[in-house]
Amino acid sequence: MSIIKVFAPAKVNLTLHVTGQRKDGYHLLDSLVAFADVGDRVTVMPAPAPRFEVTGPRADGVPTDDANLVARAAALFDIPVHILLSKHLPASAGIGGGSSDAAATLLALSDLTGDTKLPEGATELGADVRVCLMRQAARMRGIGEDVTPYHDLPPLFAVLANPGIAVSTPAVFAALATKTNPTMPKKLPKGLKTRGFIDWLATQRNDLEAPAIDAAPVIASVLQALSSLPGARLARMSGSGATCFALFDTEKAAQDAARGLSARQPDWWVEPVRLS
Q: I need a labelling partner for 19 at 20 to 30 A (CA). Which of 60, 179, 217, 255 fits?
C-alpha cells in the first residue's frame, strides 16, 4: 500500500506591506516570504472510505471537518484516502500552518494519484496556498496569486516565538488604519550576505504589526523579548501574528537565544529555525 508523507513547513513573512484594498474587500499585499525547517507533517494513504485524523503536540482544537483546509484539499481529488495530520505548529499564528498543511495534502495526493496537474480550485483554498506549494523563498503580491521565486536569500537563522494566543486575521486587517502603503522596491536586493540582508530587511515593514498589537498587546512583549536576546539583529511579527521572529548572524546564536527564551518563557512556543 502506498503511503505518502509530506512536510508542511512554517511560512514566515519577512516583510508584509499592505498596498491597497479591492472593491470586493480583499487586501493587496507585497510580501517577501521564506520557509522554516519546522512544520507539520501530512501522511496520506489509500483507504476504503475518507478518514481524517489530527495528532501531535498541537492537535488540541484543530478541526477535522471542512473547516480544515486539509479536508477541503482532499475533497478536490476523487479518491478515498486516510489522512493523518501531525500538528506541530500553533494554529492561527501568522505562519501559514493551515495553508501549508493544505499544500502538503495537495502534493501528497498528486504523488499518490500520479496526477501532476493540480485539480481545479486548489489555489483558491486560501491566499497563501500558492506560495506554500512553492515551498521556497518568494515574493508574493496581489491577493497571493502573483508569486515569484526569490533566489537571492542568504542563510538566515531565526528564533520563532508565539505566546500561545490565536489572532484573527480578518480582525487585524479590519483594524489597519491605512490600506494603501508603499510597496517594497521594484527590484529586491541581490548578492547580499546575511548581515547586509538583515540590514536591508530592517528598512522594510510588516504593516499589520500595529493593529495586531492593538488586538493582542502581548505581541509587543514578544517583540521586546526577542529584541533583547543576545545577538538579535532584527525582531518583527510574521503575517497577522501572533508569531514573531528575531534574526541572527549565525545558527549557534539563534540556538543559544532560543534556549534562553524558552527557559524564561516556558509557556511560549519557541523554535530556532533556518529560513530558506
A: 217
128 annotated active-site:
yes
The active-site residue out of 11, 30, 40, 87 is: 11
Other C-beta atoms closer than 10 Å to the C-beta of 221 total: 14
pTM: 0.97
Q: Is 11 annotated as catalytic? A: yes
Q: Tell me which of 30, 40, 101, 128 is the catalytic residue.
A: 128
216 pLDDT band, cuts 50/70/90, is very high
* Buried/exposed code over 63-102 (b: 16+ C-beta within 10 A; e: otherwise): eeeeebbbbbbbebbeeebbbbbbbbbbbbbbbbbbbbbb
Q: What angle do CA 28, 150, 24 make, to 5 degrees?
A: 15
For the residues 207-222, what does the mean pLDDT come to? 97
CB distance 137 to 104 below 8 Å: no
CA 155 centroid distance within chain = 18
